[in-house]
């Protein structure tokens, strides 16, 4: 397992650094003497969230070498950072939100048109449980960056629920087929993967232990 590196946890959309999975990963690995830093990727704010700003925030936190663990939008961010920054040594991707803008446009239909017309979409802020909103610039920015599947050359562990109705598991299957260094583990779970936390932690344990020192 790497010890002379930074381990960074990247939360998902409308979530935050105190997410259930982020805290679980931090506590699990702290008991093993490994520090996982939970980044705040609500940048520049939830209302004006930008994938480009998330990528910049992660880049600034990498140090000399880093392993990235990301959930959903955080996993997409991790993969996009890994494909462009050689300081990333490995990634753990939980239900990665590949091809986000493309999927959302197909999924939302008329709601997408309303979002573009009004400039705002109502969401739930998972950190507070309260209503919030995100501007249309978020998906415009993501569409410009997130073109096709990320292409990375470092070891990757991908964990995805087969009952995920937010990000279909097929996107992770396609990613794994295209990346010889990627291993996909399919779980009997939905998008949040909270019910699969023991499996997430065990698989990550084994993955990190197998990395060259």
Explain this structure to me?
- The chain is an alpha/beta fold and about 210 residues long.
- It is built from eight helices and eight strands; from the N terminus they run E-H-E-H-E-H-E-H-H-E-E-H-E-H-E-H.
- The strands form two sheets. It has a six-stranded parallel sheet, sandwiched between helices. Strands 5-6 form a two-stranded antiparallel sheet.
- Strand 5 (about 120-125) and strand 6 (about 130-135) form a beta hairpin.
- Helix 2 packs across helix 3 (about 75-85) and helix 4 (about 100-110) packs across helix 5.
- The longest helix has 14 residues, at about 195-210.
- The mean pLDDT is about 95.
Q: What are the defining features of this structure?
A:
213 residues; alpha/beta; six-stranded parallel beta sheet; two-stranded antiparallel ribbon; 8 strands; 22% strand; globular
Helices and strands in order, then pairings?
Blueprint: E1 6-10, H1 20-30, E2 36-39, H2 51-61, E3 66-71, H3 73-84, E4 88-94, H4 100-108, H5 110-118, E5 120-125, E6 130-135, H6 137-145, E7 156-161, H7 169-178, E8 182-187, H8 197-210
Parallel strand pairs: 1-2, 1-3, 3-4, 4-7, 7-8
Antiparallel strand pairs: 5-6
Helix pairs in contact: 2-3, 4-5
The count of β-strands is 8
**Roughly what percent helix?**
25-40%
Counting helices, strands and paired strands, the structural category is alpha/beta
How do the SSEs run, as a string of H and E?
EHEHEHEHHEEHEHEH
- Order the strands across the largest sheet as they lie in space: 2-1-3-4-7-8
Shape: globular
The major β-sheet equals:
6 strands, parallel
Rg, rounded, reads: 16 Å
The average pLDDT is 96
Query: What fraction strand?
Result: 15-25%
Q: Low-confidence stretches at least 5 residues in length (pLDDT < 50)?
A: none
Distance between the termini: 6 Å
Helix tally equals: 8
């Amino acid at each position: 397992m790497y010890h002379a590196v930074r381990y960074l946890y990247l939360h998902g959309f409308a979530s935050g650094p105190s997410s259930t999975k982020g805290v679980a990963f931090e506590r699990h690995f702290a008991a093993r003497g490994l520090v996982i830093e939970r980044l705040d990727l609500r940048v520049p704010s939830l209302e004006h969230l930008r994938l480009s700003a998330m990528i910049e925030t992660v880049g600034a936190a990498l140090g000399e070498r880093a392993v990235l663990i990301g959930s959903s939008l955080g996993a997409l961010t991790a993969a996009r950072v890994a494909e462009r920054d050689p300081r990333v040594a490995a990634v753990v991707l939980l239900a990665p939100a590949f091809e986000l803008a493309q999927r959302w446009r197909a999924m939302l239909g008329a709601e997408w048109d309303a979002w573009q017309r009004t400039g705002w979409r109502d969401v739930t802020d998972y950190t507070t449980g309260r209503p919030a909103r995100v501007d249309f610039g978020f998906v415009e920015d993501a569409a410009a960056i997130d073109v096709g599947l990320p292409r990375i050359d470092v070891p990757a562990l991908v964990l995805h629920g087969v009952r995920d109705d937010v990000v279909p598991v097929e996107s992770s299957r396609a990613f794994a087929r295209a990346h010889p260094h990627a291993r996909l583990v399919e779980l009997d779970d939905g998008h949040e993967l909270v019910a699969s936390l023991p499996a997430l932690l065990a698989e990550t344990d084994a993955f990190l232990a197998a990395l060259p020192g």
